[in-house]
Amino acid sequence: MTLTLHATDLGRLSVSHPVSATSAEVGAAPAATFAANQPADASSDSSAAEPRSSSALPALHAHSALFLDFDGTLVDLVEDPDAVVVPSGLTTTLQKLHTRLGGALAVVSGRSLQDLDRFLEPLRLPLAAEHGAQRRMAAAADAIALACPDLRDVVRSATVFAAANPGLRVESKRSAVALHYRQAPHLQAECIRFMTAAVEATANVELLHGKCVLEIKPSGISKGTAISDFMKLPAFKGRVPVFAGDDTTDESGFSVVEALGGVGIKVGAGATLASRRCAFPSDILRWLAQAESDSVLGSADSLQQQLASP
Ligand SMILES: [Mg+2]
């Protein structure tokens, strides 16, 4: 096998990850390539220097722990977040993978837990919702909510701001407030100014910049801390974590899994800490389907071999 990975420097964003292995060699999904139809995500971290290469997705094995973002990773981004289409067969694939990985599969999303359950019904998976502020640590467990600041003033002022600026949408979650401007991208600067001021007026919160969305959430809670906490549980402990995500809000998760010897998979364009990349959610769906259909989920050592190869 001739797969080559550049070491990831977790202190800064990586810029390239050339991979020379074929998908057949690593038992992975075909490496997608960035073409003219790049994801139209208007990512806030896009830049002229962003990497354009794709890399083979890692083979899952019996000792993997799988973490998956939802929007832009399992489903395509759409203008109205309530209008996402869950691909046919996704819930069945996730259910089978969850079982075959011994329960070590969790969805890690900025969505509310209720939203995720609604889109994935009748499936109940371990979840880290609202960037980890709401959690269901096992499929059969009750949801728990971490303590969060009072955001009612932020919701009120954001609602007034959105009413005065057509195209904006406020999403009030249990422990976060999101301001969506996908339908009014020309208002990005005004939205950033408004949300920055709201953060400065509220204790113990921080601002997340996502794809056409700004979100105020409790400080110190992130997808990375959620994944780290999952990895301490018996169902996940000792496994090799793999996390797929598409947005800047997923970078904390990439940092954690790469530091644990696992693999981050960036979906779409943009600088990232993830060591692997694909272009579209459809690439992730093919990769998951292939893993689910693989009778042994790849060989037990395949992922470590890929990471160790020069
Ligand atoms: Mg996403």
Poorly predicted spans: 1-52, 298-304, 306-310
Report the total helices.
9
Helix/strand order, N-terminal first: HEHEHEEEHEEHEEHEHEEHH
Number of strands: 12
CATH topology of the largest domain: Rossmann fold
- Portion of residues within helices: 25-40%
Structural class: alpha/beta
* Major β-sheet annotation: 8 strands, mixed
Structure notes:
This protein has 310 residues and is of the alpha/beta class. The chain folds into 2 domains: 52-145 and 221-308, Rossmann fold (3-Layer(aba) Sandwich); 152-218, Alpha-Beta Plaits (2-Layer Sandwich). The chain contains 9 helices and 12 strands. The strands form 2 sheets. The protein has an 8-stranded mixed β-sheet, sandwiched between helices. Helix 7 links the parallel strand 10 and strand 11 (263-267). The longest helix has 13 residues, at 188-200. It is globular. Bound molecules: magnesium ion (MG). Magnesium ion is lined by residues 69, 71-73, 245-247.
Short summary:
With 310 residues, this protein is an alpha/beta fold. It contains 9 helices and 12 strands. Helix content is 27%, strand content 16%.
Task: Summarize the topology.
Layout: H1 23-26, E1 64-68, H2 90-100, E2 105-108, H3 113-120, E3 127-129, E4 134-136, E5 144-145, H4 152-163, E6 169-172, E7 177-180, H5 188-200, E8 205-210, E9 213-218, H6 223-230, E10 240-245, H7 251-259, E11 263-267, E12 276-278, H8 281-293, H9 302-308
Parallel strand pairs: 1-2, 1-10, 2-3, 10-11, 11-12
Antiparallel strand pairs: 3-4, 4-5, 6-7, 7-9, 8-9
Helix pairs in contact: 2-8, 6-7
Tag the structure with descriptive keywords.
310 residues; alpha/beta; Rossmann fold; Alpha-Beta Plaits; 2 domains; 8-stranded mixed sheet; 4-stranded antiparallel sheet; 12 strands; 27% helix; globular; disordered C terminus; binds magnesium ion
